[in-house]
Design a protein that fits this description.
Blueprint (H helix, E strand, L loop, with lengths): L2 H23 L3 H22 L5 H11 L1 H19 L3 H6 L1 H29 L6 H11 L4 H11 L3 H30 L6 H31 L4 H22 L3 H19 L3 H28 L8 H29 L9 H7 L5 H8 L15 H23 L1 H19 L8
Helix pairs in contact: 1-2, 1-13, 2-13, 2-17, 4-11, 4-12, 4-13, 4-16, 6-7, 6-9, 6-14, 7-9, 7-17, 8-9, 9-10, 10-11, 10-12, 11-12, 11-13, 14-15, 14-17, 16-17
């Protein structure tokens, strides 16, 4: 089975699950596809172990042929982040710029330290002598909320504007910072050398600030091209050039492609659509990129479910999976709450903001792709059967599945309460005050 055949089969299966869900289940598409993929992969494992069908080896071979890390990080991610950037409203983003920056930088750092330190302490207490750097490595790959998973859910939530903007903005920008932390810890864990403070600083400046600057140049360049034509088809083709050629060039320049796609998407979605496109072209662009986004998300979350087939479970795996979810959730809550202690000194916020940002901090394929990049064969600790790669994968997988299936499907009541508070606040502010003589 070739990679192309596998992807075509997965795309057809994803569309079938989405169609059945639209007629029967009516769950959010991302949740339905992840649940369907999980049931499918579990069925493959059971059938393979029972000897009913020899599907497990075929599925494992197909997933490994695709090279999940390369397929997502160097392929789909550019399209999905550009589509996400197109939907960001710049006035809302500008109003929340400091909150988003602090959540993406300080919040992610606090979360990495809390997750890594907690897992290391719990491991020592349970007799698992895991190196601290491996625990911090997991913290770095799981702390950033996945923009792909978050945007797929947020678009259907209809949450209050300020909360939606914070969730979207944080998820689109914190992956660049998280990736820098992951690369640094990766070098410490497997590179055999201690990176210097200056080296870490230069890496961050080059990756993060270089990606933002490159995204500005890329967005302005394509804005000029799109504004110079009135052909609807050519305008759509030019938008395709950003996540294809633009993303590849970012890799050669050594800057953050994900951040560049977000910035370029914001420029096209907020400036070009109003000054360089007709109303018809604007509608065509929205429909086109919504279709691309839905299709690629469907394939991606089906792939996430099928990764389960490639895992071999040991006794330590189950323990790590049980620890991972509460540790990550608690670290997410503390990191958000610490940031809001500062925010609330300046502005009044919806009382459900921290809860929604905590429960809405979904993880997805990006975290799995980073976990899959860890070299195989390195034992988790001396004498262990389980490898570092396997431990990171099972913990990441448990958090991803829990966040999408449980958090994604139960966040609606929180959204309703937040919207009710917003409506009550608006009604109170609109109510006329009694005059003094009354």
């Amino acid at each position: 089975m070739t990679v192309y055949t596998t992807l075509c089969a997965l795309a057809a299966l994803a569309m079938l699950i989405a169609f059945i869900n639209s007629k029967i289940g009516k769950m959010q598409t991302t949740i339905a596809i992840t649940a369907g993929a999980l049931l499918l992969s579990l069925g493959m494992v059971i059938a393979g172990q029972s000897g009913w069908l020899l599907l497990e080896n075929a599925a494992t071979d197909a997933i490994e042929r695709i090279n999940f890390e390369s397929f997502l990080l160097n392929g789909m991610l550019g399209f999905l982040l550009f589509a996400g950037g197109l939907g960001i409203k710049l006035p809302n983003l500008r109003r929340q710029k400091w909150e988003i920056a602090i959540l993406a930088l300080l919040g992610t750092t606090i979360s990495v330290v809390l997750i890594g330190g907690s897992l290391w302490w719990l491991g020592q207490w349970l007799g698992l002598d895991v190196a601290l750097v491996y625990c911090l490595l997991f913290g770095a790959l799981i702390s950033p909320t996945d923009p792909i998973a978050v945007l797929a859910i947020v678009k259907k939530m209809d949450a209050p504007t300020d909360i939606s903007t914070q969730i979207e903005g944080e998820s689109l920008f914190n992956d660049g910072f998280g990736l820098v932390l992951f690369v640094t810890l990766f070098a410490i864990a497997f590179g055999g050398q201690e990176p210097s403070a200056s080296g870490i600083t230069m890496l961050f400046v080059h990756e993060a600030f270089g990606g933002i600057a490159y995204g500005l140049v890329l967005g302005l360049f394509f804005h000029t091209l799109i504004s110079a034509t009135n052909d609807h088809s050519m305008e759509q083709l030019l938008t395709l050039g950003i996540p294809t050629g633009g993303y590849v060039l970012a890799g050669y320049l050594g800057v953050s492609g994900p951040l560049a796609m977000v910035v370029a998407g914001i420029i096209i979605g907020n400036w070009t659509r109003h000054t360089g496109m007709s109303h018809a072209s604007e509608k065509h662009m929205d429909h086109f990129w919504e279709l691309v986004d839905e299709f690629l998300n469907s394939v991606l979350f089906l792939l996430i479910g099928l990764v389960l087939v490639t895992l071999t479970f040991h006794s330590e795996d189950w323990l790590l999976m049980l620890l991972a979810v509460p540790v990550v959730l608690l670290a997410r809550f503390i990191s958000i709450r610490v940031c809001y202690l500062g925010f609330e000194r300046v502005r009044r916020y919806n009382p459900y903001s921290v809860s929604i940002l905590t429960w809405g901090g979904l993880r997805g394929g990006l975290a799995l792709a980073m976990a899959l990049s860890v070299p195989a064969g390195v034992p988790l600790f001396s004498g262990a059967e389980i490898s570092v790669r396997e431990a990171l994968l099972v913990m990441t997988y448990s958090v991803v599945v829990f966040s999408i299936l449980v958090q994604g499907s139960t966040i609606t009541p929180l959204i309703r309460r937040a919207k009710r508070w917003e409506n009550d606040k608006a009604a109170a502010e609109a109510k006329p005050l009694p005059s003094e003589w009354e």
